[in-house]
Amino acid sequence: MENEKIIRAISAVFNGADERNWKKVENAMADNVLLDYSSLSGSPAATLPSAQIIETWKGFLPGFDMTQHQLSDFQVTRQGNIANVHCNGKADHFIDKDVWTVEGTYDAEVTKNNSQWAITGLKFNLSKQSGNTGLPAVAIEKVKTKSYKN
Questions:
Q1: Which range marks the domain in which residue 18 is found?
Q2: How confident is the model at residue 146 (pLDDT cuts 50, 70, 90)?
Q3: Position 71 pLDDT exceeds 90
């Protein structure tokens, strides 16, 4: 039962991002999250307020016509109120007929506070990307100029 709640919290971040439901994303994250997308972005890992992470994603994801994150093969290890989760991840990002696909694994730390599990750490380990790798720049520009459909 607890493992299902943990997986649900992780899935809510990605489902919420795909739905552009930022409240869902916020509810699944702790106030501060150690975020590490260095294997994709080159930026170093940093502990950031969840509100700042969401604002960053708002400046990027709505520029895509659609995103679809898929998570699978969850491996959950729990010790008390802390869980470590490893899973496979694939994200497709669409603009018109172009797609940019990112694949890899995630390592997440999820902490239970009261009866709620929330992400306190999230690391993406890039294995490959394919398709139009220029789409992120297009998406960012679309958000800046507010020329997106969402």
A1: 2-137
A2: confident
A3: yes
Predicted confidence (pLDDT) at residue 80 exceeds the cutoff of 90: yes
Average per-residue pLDDT in the chain?
96
DSSP 5-63: HHHHHHHHHHHHHHHT-HHHHHHHEEEEEEEE-HHHH-PPPEEEEHHHHHHHHHTTGGG
CB of 45 closer than 8 Å to CB of 115: no
Question: Domain of 40: which CATH number?
Answer: 3.10.450.50
The DSSP secondary structure of 66-127, one letter per residue, reads: EEEEEEEEEEEEEETTEEEEEEEEEEEEEETTEEEEEEEEEEEEEEEETTEEEEEEEEEEEE
